[in-house]
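Before drawing any conclusions, I looked closely at one protein's amino acid sequence and its backbone structure tokens, quoted below without any editing.
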Amino acid sequence: MNAAGRGRRWLVLLFLVRAGAAAADTGATASSLADSAMTSAPNDSGPVPLRRIVKRLEEMVVHAPALHDPYSSETAQLVPARTLRALPVDRITDMIGLRAGVVAHGEDLYVRGGRPGELVTQLQGFPLDDPFEGHRALVPLIAIRDAELVSGGQDAEHGGGLAGVLDLRTYDPGASWEGAVAWNTSAGYDTRYDRVGGRAGGPIPGLPVGIVVSAEAILDDRSLPDLRTVQRQDLLGGSFGWRGSNQYSGDVKLATRDAASRVALEILASREVDRPFDPMWSIDGYTTPCADPDCLNGPGYSPQPAPGYAPYRAADHKTITDERRTTSILSWQRTGKDRRLLVSAAWLRTRLVTSLDGHEDERYLGKDNAPVWGRFASATSDPFYVYLGDEQYFDRTRSDVLALRGDYQQMTSHGNTFKAGAGARYDQVAKREIDATTYGLNLDSLRTYRAFAPAAFAYGQGRWVFEGLVANLGLRAEYFTPGPQATDPATDEPVKGVLSWSPRLGVAYPISVHDVFSLAYVRLQQDPRRDLLYDNRQKITNRHPLGNPALRPATSISYQAAVKHMFPSDWSLQGAVFFRDTWGLVSARNIHPQNDVALMQYEDEDAASAVGTELTVIRARGPNRFELSYTWQDARGTYSREDGPLYGPQIGPRPTSVGDHALDWDRRHTLALSGIWQPRTSVTLSFSSLIGSSLPWTPSDQGAVDADLSRVNSGRLEWEETTNVAARWSLGWQAQRLTFGAEMRNVFNRRNDLVASVDGYPNPDINTLYDDYGAYRNETGNRGGAYYDAGWVPVGDPRLFAPPRTLRLVIETSW
């Protein structure tokens, strides 16, 4: 940790101590006044017992279900089912992006300044993120009953994520059959988008068991050009085909009806087919490898048939990704008057293939099919485009995770609680990755391994109430190992497992019948992703660093001061000041093996810190709900990417960072406003609006590599604004309801900058060796990207911008 980081840490600690002292003084007075004001019966035995305050706070929770447990030191934000159904969102990540402390960028969520992989998504206590890449599993939005984001002051039962936990809860079978069906479509008006989902659940006749079945499909071209050959299939009288992004997910839950002793089986399955757009792969016409007899100008292109030219559609020759997942959870829960026991087991399976057609077929790899790029200063071609060949990349990933856990909770009549639990998991992973662009360079093109490793955890968490003070104390132990097949690359000795201890300390103090002040200190660990640990290569390019089995879990220490306030009516407020200090993060570093050739390898030497303020105000009355969230934060660190610098030479040392700088997601100000208003029983209006200050970007110079990365994220993009609105009109009879509606996304048609530059792989020069897009923006001030060929040639890359305004129609029914 550098001196600046230590200084910020002690300043925040001093602020928290002073805030805690002031709150304690205020709280003592306010609590005494509250005792005398709330007690109408005489009491000569002394102060009013604490259980009076406990009961008052419980009444506050009943009147404000959006407010998290006031006795807890956690900062948790609840997302109820009605909000998920009514707001114009497509995925759960869209909804979480409106919470305080969260920066949403694309489909990635950055919570309190942490990396996207530091937020763990879980279902019934089991992480849904795969152990390889940390990708988040797809869960049907229509299957989610509610969600809870825990981002600060985590109790000991929460582990595995440095930035927090996103806990999803799906619908349980009810006493009668109910369900819903929804179709959201652009109808091909401005882009091709369709989301179809359905849910049905109820008791199974003749059996003490209920069932809920949910399914959802999202087909979206993401407002990007669809240049691939149309491939359609006839199914059930309809014609279907792949789009740019294709997501399918389903959830089945079987559960017994006995609430005291409940057995449940839940199976979640998903498939995602991603067919990415890349303007470098956009040639569509007739091409030849040599446009002149001596091939001085390189390849040639003709929009019409010509002698010596063959048809070529470049988009069909770029790889696609097909990812399939299955999660099965079997649980048994025993509930008593003041205790609860839960035992559960899970099996998570992931299958991912990146190839030319999404199948496990490597025959397209080889020198004869290598991509042919245009040449600089050529009269017949451009160095930006591919004129012949296939993308020479193949990846097949397999992982299986078996997990078991048990949790026990005991409550007392005085408001004290105790939780304890333990669990174990077994990871088995396998990979076969081929980068055939290294053919002819005397480098290793094949990366393959098969590994297995156990892991375990145990925790204890207690809550004690004493004379107006609530102590939340916990301890979590976690064991991590890369497995028996892993050896330290520096010593060639087997890597030993690591046992980590994570204390959780929190204090909550009821200032009045409407306010609770809390302080929290937590220490968190997160295991490195399995894909960063293993490798079989010796000579590599810098595109994919060497795996390192000696990586250790990253550690984060977080401090928080928070206030939860309930207004006399239907308003509630939650605010927090936080500081996070993280070290042991993974990024790529230059190493020098015995042959003295510099290579990139993953090392756990990165550090990052974040300080910020969160504020959430909620008004919930009947069907109407309005929520405002504001976040200020400063997120800094050494590197934003685990793979290190994105641009630089393919072989040899790459430039390294000279110190802390703003991280890619360092958004200082974020304001989110959302609302649901029902002026009449049959009419519902909803909206969401997000305003964010500028994100950082890295200026560069044309044809130059930053020698020390001193300018990383020294520039700032423009402020962002996105507003979505929706209107629904319902027809109801008895228990059935039919709803028609319309949604408008990006109402003001703001083409916000998402990023300033992108990865140009496998182009040998543009956006790989040099950051051409960044240099173009830096030297001209223009957006959209360009490459330099005797002058700047603008590209107008649509991937750099947010989607334009879109209009969608909605048809829903429920019973």
In short: The chain is about 10% helix and 45% strand. The chain has one domain: 3-278+318-356+391-758+797-814. The helical segments are 3-38, 50-63, 81-86, 92-96, 772-780.
